[in-house]
Structures are given as structure tokens and as C-alpha cells.
């Protein structure tokens, strides 16, 4: 099974073109590599054909990376629309002061107009988590404490977020609602996945960006993203491009949980 992708069956599986012959050819190739000329070769082939292929339902297999949710409904959809309306106000970018609370005693359960005078990327994510109910208060966070699941959970005082296994890979396809993070040489960025276009292999991101913009500004503008910088905005990036999975210090995606359940 570990050779599934290596032997080119992933694309065939997604197109529902994997036949038993494909599977047997793959097994034969593996046996040729691992233990050629053994007396048990025929038995291994028969066991795969008559037992393994049926137990694992290989004729129904697909490359799981293609199964990402690209549309959502219910609570998540409503919150994402609220967040899009928020970032599309092009609130000025600012890292001056912590609008969310650093200490529990100062934490509040709502976001006021004063909190929206200026935003940075992590504050945008903090508002998102509050609206989802992942957190009960508006906490101050930054990318330096969003690098792994343990630190992220500690910072937001909640276990209702998880790092998505395998999301550091350039092949990974995020789901709507995921949060990306990168951190490099003391600087970092994060944002919220608003939409995934598998045909164009692009991701629409809700973010607050600094003066320099992203490493994929040309793509963003050419594909209908907001060209304004140094503010909150909606941007469109190539899924595995320089603004996301190919950025130095890429940490992958975190997925919020609602009531302890995956979105």
C-alpha cells in the first residue's frame, strides 16, 4: 500500500481507472524489487488477488488528498461570510498593541469598534475563533505561538483546534475553514481558508497583510484577489505557491473544532 502513489495509481484511482491488473502489476513490481526469484512469489500474488484486494476494497480506493471539502454549510459558512465582510472593509494593518487580551482577567467576550481600528493577521484569526465559539474570549495571539498544536491550544485557552496531519506537504489540499501558518526569521503570517478551487489549484484567503504584500501578489491580482496592501483583505493564491505551501517556514494548516467535532 505504501507504493500506491509511487507507482502512479493515485491519479488512476481518482479517475476510477484502477483495475485489478494495475494492482497486480504494481505488486509484481514490488516483489521484483524486494524479493525477486523467491519460491513464494506466486502465492503472494494469489493472496493479494484473493484476499488483500478484497479486504482493503482496493477497487474503491481514492487518493485521500483529493477529498478535501470545498463547500461548507451551517455555522461555519455563516462565520466565514461574516469574516469576509469584515476583511473586505480593508481595515488598516497594525501591530501596535494587543487588541485581544494577553491575560485572562482582561479578556472580553466580544469585539468592539475600537478593536477594529487596526488589525494584523493573527488578530483576524483570533476574531474568527471567537465567532466560531472555539474560544470564549478575544485573546491576543501571534504566529510565534501558532507553530504547533500544543502551543496554539495553550494560547487560545482551548483544545478545540488541531494541526492537520500532513498539511506541511505541498501536495496537501486544505479544507474551507482551515487556518494556515508560516513563521520565518522572526516574521510570520496566517490566514483563513475561505474557498478552495481544485480546478485552478488555488485557495482564497481571508487575511490582514503588511506593506509588502505576499510573495504571490501578481497571481493574486491576476486572479481577482484584492490588490490593496497594508490592510485586511480577500486574496487568492496558488495552493502550493510562494505565499502558502512553498513559503519558508511553512507550518501547514490548523483546523478549528466546534463543540469538539471537526468542521
UniProtKB/TrEMBL annotation:
<dbReference type="InterPro" id="IPR007921">
    <property type="entry name" value="CHAP_dom"/>
</dbReference>
<dbReference type="InterPro" id="IPR038765">
    <property type="entry name" value="Papain-like_cys_pep_sf"/>
</dbReference>
<feature type="domain" description="Peptidase C51">
    <location>
        <begin position="118"/>
        <end position="207"/>
    </location>
</feature>
<protein>
    <recommendedName>
        <fullName>Peptidase C51 domain-containing protein</fullName>
    </recommendedName>
</protein>
<dbReference type="Pfam" id="PF05257">
    <property type="entry name" value="CHAP"/>
</dbReference>
Amino acid at each position: 500500500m505504501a507504493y500506491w502513489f509511487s507507482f502512479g495509481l493515485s491519479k488512476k484511482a481518482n479517475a476510477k481507472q484502477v483495475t485489478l491488473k494495475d494492482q497486480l502489476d504494481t505488486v509484481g513490481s514490488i516483489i521484483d524489487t524486494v524479493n525477486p526469484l523467491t519460491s513464494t512469489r506466486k502465492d503472494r500474488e494469489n493472496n493479494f488477488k484473493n484476499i488483500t484486494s478484497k479486504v482493503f476494497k482496493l477497487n474503491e480506493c481514492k487518493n485521500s488528498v483529493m477529498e478535501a471539502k470545498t463547500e461548507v454549510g451551517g455555522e461555519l459558512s455563516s462565520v466565514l461570510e461574516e469574516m469576509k465582510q469584515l476583511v473586505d472593509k480593508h481595515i488598516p494593518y497594525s501591530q501596535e498593541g494587543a487588541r485581544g487580551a494577553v491575560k485572562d482577567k482582561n479578556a472580553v467576550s466580544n469585539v468592539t469598534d475600537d478593536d477594529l481600528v487596526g488589525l494584523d493577521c493573527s488578530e483576524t484569526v483570533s476574531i474568527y475563533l471567537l465567532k466560531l465559539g472555539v474560544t470564549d474570549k478575544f485573546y491576543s495571539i501571534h504566529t510565534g505561538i501558532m507553530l504547533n498544536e500544543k502551543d496554539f491550544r495553550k494560547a487560545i485557552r482551548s483544545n478545540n483546534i488541531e494541526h492537520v496531519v500532513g498539511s506541511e506537504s505541498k501536495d496537501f489540499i486544505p479544507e474551507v475553514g482551515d487556518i494556515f501558518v508560516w513563521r520565518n526569521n522572526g516574521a510570520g503570517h496566517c490566514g483563513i481558508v475561505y474557498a478552495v478551487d481544485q480546478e485552478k489549484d488555488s485557495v482564497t484567503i481571508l487575511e490582514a497583510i503588511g506593506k509588502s504584500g505576499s510573495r504571490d501578489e501578481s497571481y493574486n491580482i491576476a486572479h481577482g484577489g484584492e490588490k490593496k496592501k497594508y490592510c485586511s483583505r480577500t486574496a487568492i493564491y496558488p495552493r502550493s505557491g510562494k505565499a502558502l505551501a512553498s513559503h519558508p517556514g511553512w507550518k501547514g494548516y490548523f483546523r478549528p473544532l466546534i463543540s469538539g467535532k471537526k468542521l
